Amino acid sequence: MNGLLVDDDEVYSRILQRSLERRGVRLRIASNIAAALELARAEVPDFALLDLKLKQESGLALIAPLRALRADMQIILVTGYASVATAVDAIKRGANNYLPKPVTAEALLRALDDADDVPEEPETMMPLSRLEWEHIAQAMQDCNGNISAAARLLGMHRRSLQRKLAKRPGPERNQINPAE
User: Fold this and answer.
1) What are 61-100's pLDDT values in tens digits?
2) In the chain, where does DSSP find H-type helix?
3) Dmax over Cα atoms in the chain, in whole Å?
4) Predicted pLDDT of residue 128
5) Directed axis angle between helix 158-166 and helix 128-142, to 10°?
6) How far, in whole angstroms, is CA 81 from its chain's centroid?
7) What spatial distance separates the first Cα and last Cα of the chain, rounded to whole Å?
8) Regarding beta strands 2-6 and 26-30, do their DSSP bridges make them parallel or antiparallel, or are they unpaired?
9) Residue 171 and residue 67: Cα distance in Å, rounded?
10) Alpha-carbon distance 17 to 105, whole Å?
11) Cβ neighbour number for residue 61 with a 10 Å cutoff
12) Reported pTM
């Protein structure tokens, strides 16, 4: 099996590449959309692991061109900024799966094996703070990042929304600001 990893984090990319190679999976790495498309056209991969945020680019933009190269390619989007809005967008664009970052080799291989399976029900409910964040993220996406418009849509004051945006809930907050 051979894959394509598109991620601008060089250290993470190399670690995942070595881990997968020990399991018999060949993984080529690109750090931007142009390099990813060049690698994919040279040798069409069985699967692609795409980071959502690639400096100034988005991994979402790669889904359609990769799907055009190979209709049955497994495409998995990974991100440290997981939200329901981006997960829905990724699936609508043709991704097979959506995983929070960092993804381990084991989690990736499980996702590739279970690509056609229905996801299991969560064992516990999502925390209220996380649901609130998902709602805010959806409003921000609907308003194209305009905080004032999103605040109006949510029925809250703009400054209150700005404060909430500065305090991301969940484990990814610690990945963004480890000093907190």
Assistant:
1) 888 999 999 989 999 988 877 677 777 888 888 888 888 8
2) 10-21, 33-42, 60-69, 84-93, 105-113, 128-142, 147-154, 158-166, 171-176
3) 53
4) 67
5) 120
6) 7
7) 40
8) parallel
9) 31
10) 9
11) 14
12) 0.61
CB-based contacts of 123, cutoff 8 Å, min separation 6: none
What's the token pair of residue 35?
A: 């390099």
Q: How far is CA 157 from the centre of its chain?
A: 30
Tracing tokens 């359609």 back to the chain, one arrives at 64
Assigned token pair, 153 = 């849509």
Decide if 112 contacts 53 (C-beta within 8 A). no
**C-alpha dihedral sign at 107, 110, 116, 120:** negative
What integer pLDDT is reported at residue 169 of this predicted model? 53
**How far out from the chain centre does Cα 128 lie?**
22
